[in-house]
Design a protein that fits this description.
The chain is α+β, with helices and mostly antiparallel strands and 241 residues long. The protein folds into two domains: 86 residues, no CATH class; 97 residues, Aminopeptidase (3-Layer(aba) Sandwich).
């Protein structure tokens, strides 16, 4: 847990003690990590862990957020509550279920006809992306390519129907994603390929961390079945430039 706390404290701009104290605060991200590298000055992370709420922002937003400290730190995180502060909100993403597992807690599942893809499977992977909803692909496996990261696939009658890859963050976290072709959903294929990804993450001495929106109940259930336990509830607040 210490490595996980250290990673999130560094990414958010707080201390490990901040994550575990019953105190909420606004902090400024100062160190660049693989998690926050692409954050713009107008993007804010809201991180609820244990009984604390950490609101992480750029230095450009710190003063503005402190003017609305009581609402941001103490009220429920809803679009209406945040809009009442006068902040010009572009988008609120969340609440999201952020979870992790360990070798002891991980529950591997049977995964027939699942394997790590090779260069020979590149065409099938690209066809799966091209024939699927563009936004769903962007929000799941994105631009995952076999030559850049491990990708695991589920095959039905030689057709690639589900895939999972993972990103490595700061040589500490393995962050799996998953996509299942629409007509094959509801058959536990997502669980099977994520199980393969998680197994590979653990074999490489990384901490598996899985995140999904709480409203996607099947995705939350997938994580729990594999032995992932909740670490935090997170939100991403985007303000107008």
């Amino acid at each position: 847990m210490n490595k996980l706390d250290h990673f999130w404290a560094k990414s958010l701009g707080c201390t490990e003690q901040d994550l575990n104290f019953k105190e909420s605060k606004i902090v400024v991200r100062t160190e660049e990590t693989d998690y926050n590298r692409d954050r713009s000055k107008t993007e804010i992370d809201i991180f609820e862990h244990q009984d604390s709420r950490i609101v992480s922002c750029s230095s450009a937003l710190e003063e503005k957020l402190r003017k609305h400290k009581n609402t941001i730190l103490n009220e429920d995180i809803t679009l209406s509550n945040l809009e009442n502060t006068g902040l010009e909100i572009k988008e609120l993403l969340g609440p999201a279920f952020l979870s992790h597992t360990t070798e002891e807690k991980f529950r591997n599942t049977k995964a027939p006809n699942c394997r790590q893809l090779t260069q020979k499977d590149s065409k099938k992977l690209e066809q799966l992306k091209q024939r699927s909803d563009e936004e769903e692909i962007e929000n799941s496996i994105g631009d995952a390519k076999i030559q850049n990261c491990p990708v695991f696939g589920k095959f039905i009658d030689k057709e690639l129907v589900a895939v999972s890859s993972y990103q490595v963050w700061d040589q500490t976290i393995g962050f799996p994603d998953v996509f299942v072709k629409e007509e094959f959903r509801g058959n536990s294929y997502g669980k099977q390929v994520v199980s393969k990804s998680t197994e590979h993450i653990l074999e490489n001495d990384l901490i598996p961390v899985y995140r999904t929106l709480e409203k996607w109940h099947s995705s939350v259930g997938l994580a729990k079945v594999l032995g992932y336990t909740k670490y935090a509830t997170t939100y991403l607040l985007k303000l107008e430039e």
